[in-house]
Every structure is written in structure tokens, then in C-alpha cells.
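Supplementary Methods, section 5.1.

A reviewer requested that the exact input to the structure prediction be made available. We therefore reproduce it here, unchanged from the version used in the analyses.
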Amino acid sequence: MAEVAFKKSTAREYFESLVITVILALFGTTFIVQAFKIPTPSMEDNLLVGDHLLVNKFVFGSPGSIFDKVLPLKDIKHGDVIVFKYPKDLTKHYVKRAIGLPGDRIKIVDKQVYVNDVAQQEPYKIHKAPPGSFAEPIRDFFPPKPQPGRIYHGADEDPYWYEEYTKDGEIVVPPDHYFAMGDNRDNSADSRYWGFVPRELIVGKALIIYWSYETDSDEYRRTDVVDRVQQITDLVTNFFTKTRWSRSFKIIR
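The structure derived from this sequence is encoded cell-by-cell as follows.
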């Protein structure tokens, strides 16, 4: 009996292609890379407000993932630019630099970071405070001296969270946690203020800037409909003039 060949309809071919594309996209954003944008100046001048990043999600692996045994994983190192879920609000993502690894002893003396008694050479860091701001002691000298007699209540509600981890004038990073700081040390809400980053909240390593658009941090805080329309209009009108072409495809270090 002769075989009969059935040709797929064009509509079906497009539908199957679309389904495959969606599956690959979901797999990619779940396990391989994900896009993020920089809304604040905490990582200046390495990362600017308006930079759009691709984040390598598999490089550090995921605790308990079935892919950990087959992927080329690396350990988190001092100085890695990491993306993680903000421990105080898991709906937000932060981009900071890994300064302290589990077991490290850390202190900051007059803006100089010491890790395990070694003064760190940090060519990426700057000290650029916003206009009108004031220097909190915890910013430049960390950890502050403990207050005798004060009752510890835990990091979630206590601004003195670091006292539990302070020993001999240094803070000791607990297992499976990391101490993260922004490159702009005078304008970064980081581990000095809210505590350590649990390993399970780390999404991946910042890889490359695929696009950078000149804007300011206030624009990302304006989210109503009128603001969105204005932002889209600005993008359409000024795409070529406000795109920072020199930052496109810049490797993040």
C-alpha cells in the first residue's frame, strides 16, 4: 500500500515553532541567563543606572539542583558581582559585589575594607555620596562597637543585627552566607545595613551589559500609567541619542 504524506498546514507549523520558542525561552531564563536592569547608583562607576545586564544563572549552581552534577559550576569568589533576591523583600533583586565569603572575618576602618586581616585592593570602588547626605558611622567603620547590656532581637527587626556575629572587632560571616557591598561605598544599601546574603537567594553572576540607556534612578520609581507613557515616548524619541553605545556588550568585572 502506497504511503500517503500529509503536509502540515502553515498555521500549525507556526504554532509549533512558537511553542518550541516559548519552551526554550522559559528554559533559558530559568536555568541559563536572565535579564536585569540597574535602577540605582549603588554600583557606580562599574554599573550605571540604565544599564541592562545578562546574568549567568548556572555558573554558581543551585542548591539541590539536578543540573549541578553536569554543568561547569564555579564557587563564588571575592569580588564577584552577584545578583540576589533582597533578603528583606524577596520580590526585589539586588546587584552587589561579594566581599566576604563563609568563615571570613571582616572589618572596615576609615573606609578601608579588611578581610582576614588583609587590606583589600579594590580598584572598582568609589566614594561618591549623593548631595545633601550625611555619613553614618556604620558606613565607614564596621562593625561598630557593641553596646553593653543591649538585648539582641534578631536581624529582621533589629538594626544592630551585626552584634551577634561580632568577635574581637570583626564580623564573622556564617556558613552558607555572604557579605555583599556596592562599589559606590557612600551610596549603597548593602550588608552593612541589613545583614548577610543567604546562599539560596543568590541568582547568579552578572555577565555582560547588553544595552545601556541614559536615565536616572527616579524614573524607575515612577510606575503609574502616565509615567510609563512618558518613558516609552522618551525611549522612542531619544533611543539613538541616549543609548550609551560605548557600554554595549561590556563584560562585567
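Residues 106 and 115 are 5 Å apart (CA to CA). These observations are discussed further in the main text.
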